[in-house]
Amino acid sequence: MHMTDTWTNRDLPVLHAIMNRVEATNFQTVQATVIAQDTNFDAKTVNLALEALSRAQPGFFEKVTSAGVSGGVLMVSGPTERARIATGTWPSPKSISEDLIAALHKQAEQTPEGPKRKKLRSMANAATDVGTDLLAKLFAEVMKSGMPPLS
């Protein structure tokens, strides 16, 4: 039996619509009817996505307002860090790793020939060799423990 990918085709576009609306209006609550307009999905599709997103753990929203036992989701409020990372509005450890590697390679290419360029190339190559997965784990640990205060 083949399972349909609801994340890519339904849930993620709904989550993107919510985050776009939050970013555009700076209002943390988004109604299901607005999401339907923004995605061009029908009300049933939006409700299925919101139900799926609201059951995820850790959650994508701080609050989900429903219309009773079987009435569906009316609105969602307070997108969490997970929602922001999933939609790319906040960096993930993997995206930070990829950005660091790309920046090192770019800086190495833009630096005039000499010892500094050689060191930058070595750093970029070492970061590439280590790979984004290991760097992402390291960045995740740093992000978990918090950044030290600047002195």
Please outline the helices and strands:
Blueprint: H1 6-25, E1 29-31, H2 32-39, H3 43-55, E2 61-66, E3 73-79, H4 81-86, H5 93-110, H6 115-130, H7 132-145
Helix pairs in contact: 1-2, 1-3, 2-3, 5-6, 5-7
Q: Largest sheet, if any?
A: 3 strands, antiparallel
Report the CATH C-level class of the largest domain.
Mainly Alpha
Please mark out the parts with pLDDT under 50 across 5 or more consecutive residues, or reply none: none
| CATH topology grouping of the largest domain | Arc Repressor Mutant, subunit A
Descriptive account of the structure:
There is one protein chain. The protein has about 150 residues and is mainly α. It folds into two domains: about 80 residues, Orthogonal Bundle (Arc Repressor Mutant, subunit A); about 55 residues. About 65% of the residues lie in helices and about 10% in strands. It is built from seven helices and three strands, in the order αβααββαααα. It has a three-stranded antiparallel β-sheet. Strand 2 and strand 3 form a beta hairpin. The longest helix is centred in the first third of the chain and has 20 residues. The N and C termini lie far apart (about 60 Å).
Give a brief rundown of this model:
By secondary structure, the chain is mainly alpha-helical. It has 7 helices and 3 strands, in the order αβααββαααα.
